[in-house]
Fold:
Amino acid sequence: MRHNYLALAVLVAAGLMAGCGGRAANPTPQVSIYDRYMSCDEIREEVARNYEAQSLLVRDRVWAEEKNDMIMGLSLAFPPGWFAVDPTVEGEYGESPQEIEGSALATRARYLIATAQKDECWPDPKVWSPL
Structure:
């Protein structure tokens, strides 16, 4: 009976750690139906938010890689820990959720900047002006 509880505990622990194995990408669409109603200030604010979000995604990917390294090291003593490794950050460049989302944010920012340039409000004339 005691052996059954141990086996059950190991299976539950492995199942819980398997839930830590990564996440799906949620990329930002390039175009929104509300883009045509955005003012120049709103465009600048969204581009700034996109750049900040890209920075956070880079930090998130680095943390995920470091977490994987720690889990792999600890899994030598506790093999079910391998189920907690995040496989999405172990692949080729451009395949992790953070990179997919970062690329989508960069594409969105380029689209917004191009839209603002057509409306002649990028760059901000109060901050920078050509010679």
User: Anything to note?
Assistant: Helices lie at 2-18, 40-74, 97-118. Residues 70 and 85 are 9 Å apart (CA to CA). The chain has a mean pLDDT of 81.
